[in-house]
Amino acid sequence: MLRPAYPIYTARLTLRPWTADDFDDLYAVQSHPDVPRYLYWSVRDAAEVREDLKIKSTLSAISEVGDTLSLAVVYREAERVVGSVSLHWLSREDGGGEVGYVFHPDFGGRGLATEAASAVLRLAFTAPIDGGLGLHRVIGRIDARNTASARVLERLGMRREAHFVENEYVKGEWTDEVVYAILRREWAARRAQPRI
């Protein structure tokens, strides 16, 4: 069970549940032609964004295996939602989860996705008694061509564990999938290292 206390603040970001007022910002992300390039979905129109926002607004807690937490990421300097970050609970027995993120390209290269995903890893790995999910291992799956996303996962301390060649047929072409992962003990060791 994961029901975070909102909002969640990082150095530059506010992570919070989605609201109907986020439509314009979410539309700016999902209608941008560069955003879904390496994702399963294509550029979305207003009706599709409204439907996705309706779904996202219900994903503010994780109650059971299979649930997803989806949070709006507000960049306080810009005073707007610039992306989303998610955590999916994959397995109780194996303590597995998956992190994901999608950001507007205009806000790329600033470390915002890393900062947001780092906050979600904290929720994933922190013990339930301390408000987290207490997972053992978290993965990140990306299209092998998405080098920017690979850099985010690497900055989070995740290791590249697998490269599946042409394992999915997406948008009319065979694509490679790369899987990254980090264990709770590895995450804890990184947090314990002194910052230089």
Descriptive report:
- The chain is of the alpha+beta class and 196 residues long.
- 26% of the residues lie in helices and 33% in strands.
- Strands 1-2-3-4-5-6-8-7 form an 8-stranded mixed sheet, with helices on both faces.
- Strand 5, helix 3 (112-125) and strand 6 (137-143) form a beta-alpha-beta unit.
In short:
By secondary structure, the protein is of the alpha+beta class.
Strand and helix layout:
Blueprint: E1 8-9, E2 13-16, H1 23-30, H2 46-56, E3 68-75, E4 80-91, E5 96-103, H3 112-125, E6 137-143, H4 147-155, E7 159-170, E8 173-183, H5 184-192
Parallel strand pairs: 5-6
Antiparallel strand pairs: 1-2, 2-3, 3-4, 4-5, 6-8, 7-8
Helix pairs in contact: 1-2
Comma- or semicolon-separated keywords:
196 residues, alpha+beta, eight-stranded mixed β-sheet, globular
Summarize the main sheet.
8 strands, mixed
Please indicate the percent range of residues in DSSP E strands (runs of 2 or more). Answer: 25-35%
Percent helix, as a range, is 25-40%
How far is it from the N-terminal to the C-terminal residue, by CA? 35 Å
Radius of gyration equals 16 Å
Number of strands: 8
Overall pLDDT confidence: 96
Q: Helical element count?
A: 5
Strand order of the largest sheet: 1-2-3-4-5-6-8-7
SSE series: EEHHEEEHEHEEH
Shape: globular
Question: Which structural class fits the helix and strand makeup?
Answer: alpha+beta
Which regions have little confidence, pLDDT < 50, spanning 5+ residues? none
